[in-house]
Amino acid sequence: MLGKQVFAIFLVIIMVLFCIQITIATHSYVVGDSAGWTFGVSSWANVRKFDAGDLLLFRYPKGVHNVVIVNKANYDNCNAIGKTLSSGNDSVALGKGPNYFICGIGGHCNDGLKMEAIAH
Predict the structure, then answer these.
(1) What is the pLDDT of residues 61-73, one digit of tens each?
(2) Which side of the chain, N or C, has fewer Cβ within a 10 Å radius?
(3) What is the DSSP letter of 62?
């Protein structure tokens, strides 16, 4: 009898862990779709619904652009102060709330290479 109870508890634990795994699954998005991380990309994020944990994949020619993860003030002022990614093939997991990205090369941010992604 005790063996059946232990087995039933074990099955319940497995089912709970399986459900938790499903609920934390993430989606991946290539920023800018086929155009990639380039000028005019800010509107790309406006038509998508992101969840915390979703991955943004930044694709761009290495050395031509970069991705700087910034706060709101640095986003608004195009200050490239934050974590800089520059491989041309970068991925970032979104945190809950607004996430801000700019290109820190030359005047690219001032020319529109910046994006806000809001994760729910």
Answers:
(1) 999 999 999 999 9
(2) N
(3) B
The pLDDT assigned to 26 comes to: 86
Bridge partner list, 59 = 89
d(CA 119, CA 96): 5
Would you state the structure tokens that stand for residue 92, as one six-digit string? 């970032």
Q: How many CA atoms lie within 13 A of 59 on its CB side?
A: 10
Residue type, 81: I
C-alpha pair distances (Å), 50 with each of 12, 17, 62, 94, 99: 31, 24, 26, 8, 11
SS3 percent helix, strand, coil of the chain, rounded to 5, is: 30, 30, 40
**What is the CATH architecture assignment of 27-119?**
Sandwich (2.60)
Cross-strand bridge partners of residue 3:
none
How far apart, in Å, are the Cα atoms of 58 and each of 16, 61, 115?
A: 34, 10, 11
